[in-house]
Write a structure and sequence with these properties.
The protein has about 375 residues and is an alpha+beta fold. Helix content is about 25%, strand content about 25%. The chain binds zinc ion (2 copies).
Length: about 375
């Protein structure tokens, strides 16, 4: 599916100001919110699409990259970067975004009370790691060691951010992290639950910040993963390792590590789904007389029998020599396209033999060529 231009999605000009972007997002997100469009899959898609567009255009850096490179902007293919995905819906929760833009409405902005208070649980950011694989690695499976820079909980304060480990209950919200306000709006009576601005929704206040981490409860570190790559992956496949990503500020849930797989181009094979295709050149005499030739496969060399009279461009199939289907026992084939090699340099001896052979032509030419010569004759006679 082709991705729509983010400006087009939000109905904006390319030089739109931040407040216009926010305004456009607010009105469109409100329009397409699934709560207002129950069982409307199209509206939900639109809701996600405007969320994605807003998440990029509202961020100066992402917007600049998007303006320059469009949807193919770097960050998708670079090495792992702190802070998770640059673009795309991966790692972006459109509802979370919606809540944050609408100022922390509890969970239902449409005037219905949700009852239970939504706990604000902080979540660490995701880490994206790119792994480039050869076709051989994809066919046989492999384990890759990757080292990533990661945010870990500070050991000095056990991730609390506080030197003493004591956090004071917020006096403004009494520890709930939320302030409730009731107001009238276009949608009727709205219970507006906003995040407490004193404690930032945590319900607790930090008085004695840890000197090691400065109060975030986070320190920079490194982590090494052994990634077992399943056989048959293709470009665009990814693996999500839940809870292995960056730690969250002062406790909370850890983010994920997302391993994205990429395919290196191969000098012999091209991949077509689970099949691989290669080209082999044979000599004229092998094609005419038939031969057994050596063919490379992703798992070593095999011999392929070429029938006598093989025409150039003929395809041979080596069963089960392709790539295993992801999560299955089936395996693709290797297709071998045979072409006839015409040498540009020949020895004196070869020349002599070929001249002798030429003396037989065209009466020795095979059936397929006859109509051609006949046609040529027809033209000239
Ligand atoms: Zn508070
Ligand atoms: Zn600390």
């Amino acid at each position: 599916m082709n991705k729509r231009d983010y400006y087009e999605v939000l109905g904006l000009d390319r030089d739109a100001e931040q407040d216009e972007i926010k305004k456009a997002y607010r009105s469109m997100a409100m329009k397409y919110h699934p709560n207002r469009n129950p069982d409307d899959a199209q509206a939900e898609e639109k809701f996600k699409e405007v969320g994605e567009a807003y998440s990029v255009l509202s961020d100066g850096n992402k917007r600049a990259r998007y303006d320059r490179f469009g949807h193919a902007a770097p960050g998708m293919t670079g090495t792992q970067d702190f802070g998770g995905f640059s673009f795309g819906m991966d790692g972006l929760d459109p509802f979370e975004l919606f809540r944050s833009v609408f100022g922390g409405f509890g969970g239902d902005i449409f005037g219905r009370q949700t009852g239970a208070r939504q706990q604000r649980i902080r979540r660490g950011t995701d880490l994206k790691v790119d792994i480039k694989l050869t076709l051989e690695e994809i066919a046989e499976g492999t384990t890759k060691k990757v080292k990533v820079k990661i945010l870990k909980p500070c050991q000095a304060c056990s991730g609390t951010g506080s030197k003493s480990g004591d956090l004071e209950t917020c006096p403004r919200c009494n520890g709930s992290g939320e302030i409730q306000q009731v107001s009238e709006s276009f949608f009727g009576r709205v219970v507006n639950v906003t995040v407490c601005n004193l404690c930032g929704g945590e319900g607790k206040i930090l008085r004695d910040a840890c000197e090691v981490c400065g109060g975030d409860g986070l320190v920079r570190g490194e982590k090494t993963f052994d990634i077992k790559v399943p056989t048959g992956v293709s470009e665009g496949n990814y693996l999500r390792m839940k809870g292995e990503g960056n730690a969250a500020v002062r406790g909370g849930r850890k983010g994920d590590v997302i391993i994205a797989f990429y395919e290196k181009s191969h000098n012999l094979f091209t991949r077509h789904g689970d099949d691989v295709l290669c080209e082999m050149q044979v000599s004229y005499s092998d094609a005419v007389l038939g031969a057994s030739i050596e063919v490379p496969t992703l798992s070593g060399k095999v011999r392929l029998k070429i029938d006598p009279g093989t025409q150039t461009g003929k395809m041979f199939r080596l069963r089960n020599k392709g790539i295993p289907h992801l999560n299955s026992n089936r395996r693709g084939d290797q297709l071998v396209r045979v072409t006839i090699h015409v040498p540009t340099k020949i020895s004196t001896e070869e020349r002599k033999l070929l001249e002798e052979l030429q003396a037989f032509s065209p009466k020795e030419t095979s059936g397929n060529s006859k109509p051609f010569f006949k046609k040529v004759r027809d033209i000239f006679i």
